[in-house]
Design goal:
Layout: H1 2-36, H2 44-66, H3 81-116, H4 127-131, H5 133-154
């Protein structure tokens, strides 16, 4: 299980880097091409937008794994550590529930997009491919938070990145 987690971690980070390089490369090329009038990439902005959507949702998966999503820490100063641990577990369960809920409805929306057959204006790729990352990202975030909640309850070291 630990090995699978490490493979998944590397895969997430690799996809993130590839998308970032593609997005920056296309935008840089389109910008230079526009000013030098050497090349015109009509679909550059569209591809960059879709890469950004994927980067955001893969980023939330990585943020959930590392426990680096934003949180209100004002209560840390006033409550004992045990009470804070209970509050963190409860908050994580709520976030987990929301992610599963949103992923479920994201799949429903994705199914309607598959049936609709809409394609992107410039690239002419199916819109469901672009937006498939939304339910996937939310489901993966929920899974990461479920693992985090389990480790919090079991009192295991959650700062290690073993999946």
């Amino acid at each position: 299980m630990k090995k699978l987690g490490q493979i998944l971690n590397r895969l997430e980070e690799s996809i993130l880097v590839i998308l970032l390089v593609v997005m920056l490369g296309v935008i840089f090329t389109a910008t230079v091409g526009r000013f030098t009038k050497i090349i015109t990439i009509k679909w550059a902005e569209e591809l960059a937008r879709y890469c950004m959507i994927w980067i955001v949702f893969i980023g939330i998966i990585i943020g959930a794994r590392k426990g680096e999503h934003f949180a209100v820490t004002a209560l840390d100063m006033f409550l004992p550590k045990k009470a804070m641990n209970v509050i963190k577990i409860i908050a994580t369960i709520f976030v987990d529930g929301f992610c599963f809920f949103a992923a479920y409805y994201g799949v429903k929306i994705l199914n309607s997009q598959i049936k609709g057959g809409q394609v992107t204006p410039s690239l002419q790729i199916p819109m469901w491919i672009v937006y498939s990352i939304i339910p996937f990202g939310l489901a993966m975030m929920a899974i990461r938070y479920t693992i985090r909640t389990y480790k919090d309850i079991a009192g295991k070291d959650i700062d290690r990145e073993d999946g």
